[in-house]
From TrEMBL:
It is an enzyme of class 1 (oxidoreductase). One of its GO terms (biological process) is fatty acid biosynthetic process. Interacts with PEX5, probably required to target it into peroxisomes. This is Peroxisomal trans-2-enoyl-CoA reductase. The keyword Ion transport does not apply. Pathway: Lipid metabolism. GO terms for molecular function: trans-2-enoyl-CoA reductase (NADPH) activity. The keyword Oxidoreductase applies. It comes from Thermobifida halotolerans. Keywords: Fatty acid biosynthesis, Fatty acid metabolism, Lipid biosynthesis, Lipid metabolism, NADP, Oxidoreductase, Peroxisome, Phosphoprotein. It is found in: Peroxisome. InterPro entries: NAD(P)-bd_dom_sf (IPR036291), Peroxisomal_t2-enoyl-CoA_red (IPR052388), SDR_fam (IPR002347).
Amino acid sequence: MAAEFCRLGARVVVCGRTRESLDETVRRIDGELGEGRAFAVTVDVRDPESVAAMLDRAADLLGEVDGLVNNASGLFPIDAEKLTPGGFDAVVRIVLNGTWHCTSELGRRWLAAGRGGAVVNVLTPYAWTGAPGIVHNASAKGGVLAMTRTLGAEWAGRGVRVNAVAPGWMPVGGTDFLAGDPEIRRRLIDAIPAGRLLRAEETARAAAYLLSDDATYVAGEVLTIDGGHHLSKGLYEFMDELPGRR
Ligand SMILES: CCCCC/C=C/C(=O)SCCNC(=O)CCNC(=O)[C@H](O)C(C)(C)COP(=O)(O)OP(=O)(O)OC[C@H]1O[C@@H](n2cnc3c(N)ncnc32)[C@H](O)[C@@H]1OP(=O)(O)O
Ligand SMILES: NC(=O)C1=CN([C@@H]2O[C@H](COP(=O)(O)OP(=O)(O)OC[C@H]3O[C@@H](n4cnc5c(N)ncnc54)[C@H](OP(=O)(O)O)[C@@H]3O)[C@@H](O)[C@H]2O)C=CC1
């Protein structure tokens, strides 16, 4: 996502807890586009003080921060009845609380300065359909969906826009374990009307639109990018097998 934003001309601070992976991302962007476009800053989004320090550092590096993408997430598949309170908390604290800490801290700064800004939250379509097997993540994403709509309306009149993207399956990061298995990959793709997995750059392009001045009148909206997956194929899945079809 950061690389695609830089290709589109942005300067970006990439954040996470692991210094090495952030430095690796910046090195790749430097290698492709030259130095000075991307910077690495560590943060733990579960900790409001860490978030405030990250935003201070980002402002030092970029001059002004115009946008925020809440991308951090955590997930492990588990039957709901086996999930411990600690396991539920572990995911909700990253996804829901982390999104709140970053958004509220930066939103307050923008409002206090009387300037606008744009937030894009990274959801999934199961934020509104639910997702058996990952109740912790689905609950947290559902909370972020409500936060998106609430703040989208609450701050729209003061120039702070809050929107979301809802990507389908991408063969990257946390879901590599699914799409990496050829049989599971085939079954995933079979269920997607568009007939392929999503490319990470396509998510980045959608997020870039919502961050951009082309979207100044878009507030509290969710842009779904899942090749029709959450709509399902419906009858079309069996079309060729239906009796009496011409
Ligand atoms: C249609 C499109 C769908 C695509 C959806 C994609 C969504 C994504 O979000 S992808 C991003 C996924 N990324 C990751 O998952 C990153 C790697 N994962 C993690 O870092 C862990 O899963 C984490 C979130 C649990 C990390 O939290 P951490 O606080 O470091 O975890 P602890 O080891 O301290 O454990 C806390 C708590 O959670 C229980 N637990 C951890 N892992 C599991 C597991 N695999 N199964 C069951 N329980 C687990 C652990 O036992 C602790 O609970 P208590 O013992 O009760 O305290
Ligand atoms: N992959 C997919 O198919 C889909 C993904 N999504 C969403 O896209 C986003 C990215 O997913 P994906 O790239 O697959 O996942 P990854 O696991 O690769 O990325 C998650 C990122 O979150 C960071 N992170 C986790 N916990 C924290 C924390 N406490 N503080 C700061 N950063 C943290 C991780 O870095 P570190 O561990 O170093 O802190 C990592 O860089 C997520 O919001 C996910 O829900 C949505 C739909 C589909």
